[in-house]
Amino acid sequence: MDIKNGFPGSVGNTPLIRLNYFSELTGCEILGKAEFMNPGGSVKDRAALYIIQNAERSGELKPGGTVVEGTAGNTGIGLVHICNAKGYKCLIVIPNTQSEEKIQLLRTLGAEVKTVPAVPYKDPNNYVKVSERLAREMDNAVWANQFDNLANRHAHYDSTGPEIWSQTSGSVDIWVTSLGTGGTFAGVGLYLKEKKPNVISVAADPTGSGIYSFVKTGEPKAEGSSFTEGIGNSRITENMKGAPFDDAVQIQDSECLEVIYTLLHREGLFLGGSSGINVGAAVHLAKKYGPGKTIVTVLCDSGARYQSRLFNSEWLSTKGFSVPKF
């Protein structure tokens, strides 16, 4: 019998999918880790589970307690699922710029949701800092602190990295993904480098984020903006420190949009903007390093979480884009 132990026991062990269209286009094996198939619908289920388990082990999170977090959505969704399964309450602080689908889903799942204006991290009213203050002011509450809590990257070092290594039989040549907290990039990158030091570990970055600049110049300077959600950062988090940054690729929104519609119409995969950044970067790397490479990236979450935006012609037109034709 192969039976998982509730929601927490169902997190991880996601398939690695060959992206046939992009693999044939480039002559490389472009493989996507299907993290949208986690039970909470995203890669962030892994970090959420490890953060809660770590807080339980330390004694910081006690029965009947509340988990508080500032999130662009997916980590909060993972947290509230696990809180429901374990009997905790959940308070989520989210920027009001995030998709209505994610905000409403958090409320439907039972989280208390506080929306705040989107302001830079240095501002005391930034959503991350608001969540920290709220957790401190509450009784029997813990702050998940996904950006600087190393349980985040440990989740990927312990699970995602070994899964990718096993699923590729160690043939992975290039690891590439976008960063928000940096947990996925760092955890997987550190694991793969231990197994195979010549694996190339590459950051994928949207415009408006400082990670590309950090890798290229040593300073996280952000320029422009992006319609992507939950990825990019203007600071180097604790989860990013010591991560293996071999290179970085910056992907424009126009290319991201083309990729997510290609994934839908050529691969049958309905995915969000971060997956578009990731797969777009994988294609760039395939062209840079040439045929025959095995490139692994992350398919982070479903396009259903952005349906009113990225898959809505009226919303796209307000950003100066149109729906790609197929």
From TrEMBL:
Pathway: Amino-acid biosynthesis. It comes from the Bacteria. SUPFAM superfamilies: Tryptophan synthase beta subunit-like PLP-dependent enzymes. One of its GO terms (molecular function) is transferase activity, transferring alkyl or aryl (other than methyl) groups. InterPro entries: Cys_Synth/Cystath_Beta-Synth (IPR050214), P-phosphate_BS (IPR001216), TrpB-like_PALP (IPR001926), TrpB-like_PALP_sf (IPR036052). Signal peptide: none annotated. GO terms for biological process: cysteine biosynthetic process from serine. Gene3D superfamilies: 3.40.50.1100. PROSITE patterns: CYS_SYNTHASE (PS00901). Residues 10-301 form the Tryptophan synthase beta chain-like PALP domain. Its cofactor is pyridoxal 5'-phosphate. PANTHER family: CYSTATHIONINE BETA-SYNTHASE. This is Cysteine synthase A. It comes from Leptospira perolatii.
